[in-house]
Each structure stands twice: as C-alpha cells, then as structure tokens.
Amino acid sequence: MGQLLLWALLIVPWFLLIPLDSKRVRHFSSVAFFTIFLTTIYWQMAEVWHWWDVTDNVFFLRNISSFNFGLLPVTTILIFYFTYSNVWLFFGANIIIDAFQAFIISPFIFQRFGLYKMNNMSNFGLFLLLLSLVPIIFLYQRWYETK
Questions:
Q1: What are phi and psi of 116, to 5 degrees?
Q2: pLDDT tens digit string along 48-78?
Q3: In this model, does residue 2 exceed pLDDT 90?
Q4: At what angle do helices 71-83 and 22-49 cross, to 10 degrees?
Q5: If pLDDT is split at 50, 70 and 90, which confidence band does 18 have?
Q6: The dihedral sign for the CA sequence 4, 9, 14, 20
Q7: For residue 119, which of 100, 131, 106 has the smallest C-alpha distance?
Q8: If DSSP states are collapsed to H, E and C, what string results for 41-89?
Q9: What residues form the membrane-spanning segments (predicted)?
C-alpha cells in the first residue's frame, strides 16, 4: 500500500494543474522548482541530523520522499496561484496547510503507511521547518517578478 501511495503522491497531483490557466501556472513554476531545491536541502539535513528516516520509497529515490517531487511543487503552485495576490491570505493559507501536513498528514498518513519515521524531530518541529520555507519562497517570487 505504501508503494501505491508513493507513486500516487509523485504523479497524481500534476493532473490538478490541467484545468488551470497555463500562463499563470508557468508564472509560478519557478518558485515551485525553487521549493523543491530548498526542501531537498532539508531532506539532506534530516538525514545527517536524523530528524527522520525514510523507510519506504520509489525505486529511484533513496532519502527524499517522492511527494517532494509531486505533491509539494503542485501544492506550491496552487497556493501561489490562488493566494499570492493577497499577502495575508498567502501566509494564512500556508500556516493552515503546513499545520495540516505536520499534525495530520505526517503522523496519520505518511508515518502510518511507513513512508518515513520521525526520530529527532517532533511534529511541532516539522511544522516550524515547513513554516520556515514560506517567507523564503514568497521573497523569491517577489524577486523573480522583478527580473
């Protein structure tokens, strides 16, 4: 079941972008790839400092979960797509979504299906880690738009 979930988290979210305006999706694709870059660094830090251990994965990934390349960038695009024009809505939506991931999705789905196991980081620590990305990617998108 874990393998099915991993592949679904890698492939299925991309289909959510099909009905959206492709020009606006392309506008936010850079920040999605930047988010992948930053979270990849976080996954490497997690391995070194034993924040969590990846226990199940797709065959071509070792220590970074497949949702880092499927669900995460698509969620980033969707949040920017729908909330970027209002800074308070953007930050509020991110707080809610990050809390949902840290306190519900991580323990009750990802860990229960054996995708990873938390070690030296609590769910609150994960929430703070996820939240630390928000101002960085927001400022990146603002900077990107000036180029």
A1: -155, 165
A2: 999 999 999 998 988 899 999 999 999 999 9
A3: no
A4: 130
A5: very high
A6: positive
A7: 106
A8: HHHHHHHHHCCEEECCCCCCCCCCCHHHCCHHHHHHHHHHHHHCCCHHH
A9: 32-52, 64-82, 88-110, 122-140
